[in-house]
Write a structure and sequence with these properties.
alpha/beta, Beta Polymerase, domain 2, 7 strands, elongated
Length: 166
């Protein structure tokens, strides 16, 4: 089995998806690319099923909220265990309409990862077989990892200065 490098993966992705791949960089050696939500499933399927790439293991799906740009980045981490190579794939979507196709069509294990991302960030995965909260109460009307909420409860009395002589 020939060694697979980040440059090989970039080359294969560029040949297949040319203008749909951007933001290519390698922080700490981890190949990171950006793509768009209209081709995310095709990109993930290519990375998973192409014999030249072989990223068959979905390590994680999560999100990052960027309130200053009104975007949420949906982040996928894939792993090629045989060749010891990882890749991070990011898709930026609007925080006002946070929808993206589900990856459960490729990995059954994406089910709970997408439910968690929905629960905490409000990202709706279109086509998901059972998209509902997984960790928080069903009655919770917010998505707590969005950066629009304060880090601490302002009503906490254990942190009030007057209780500590300040």
């Amino acid at each position: 089995m020939a060694e697979l490098t980040n440059n090989d993966v970039i080359q294969l992705l560029s040949e297949k998806f040319s203008h749909k791949i951007s933001g290519v960089n390698e922080p700490y050696g981890l190949l990171t690319i950006e793509t768009t939500k209209d081709v995310i499933i095709e990109v993930l399927a290519f990375l998973k099923d192409n014999s030249g790439t072989g990223f068959s293991f979905l390590t994680d799906i999560t999100a990052v909220h960027y309130p200053e740009t009104n975007h949420i980045a949906v982040v996928y981490h894939l792993h090629n265990m045989a060749r010891r190579l990882r890749i991070r794939v990011k898709v930026f979507i609007s925080e006002h309409t946070p929808t993206i196709p589900t990856a459960t069509v490729l990995w059954n294990g994406a089910n709970w990862m997408e439910r968690e991302t929905y629960d905490f960030f409000g990202v709706k995965f279109e086509g998901h077989p059972d998209l509902r909260r997984i960790l928080n109460m069903d009655e919770l009307n917010v998505h707590p990892m969005l950066k629009q909420y304060p880090l601490e409860d302002p009503n906490r009395v254990d942190k009030k200065d007057e209780y500590f002589g300040r």
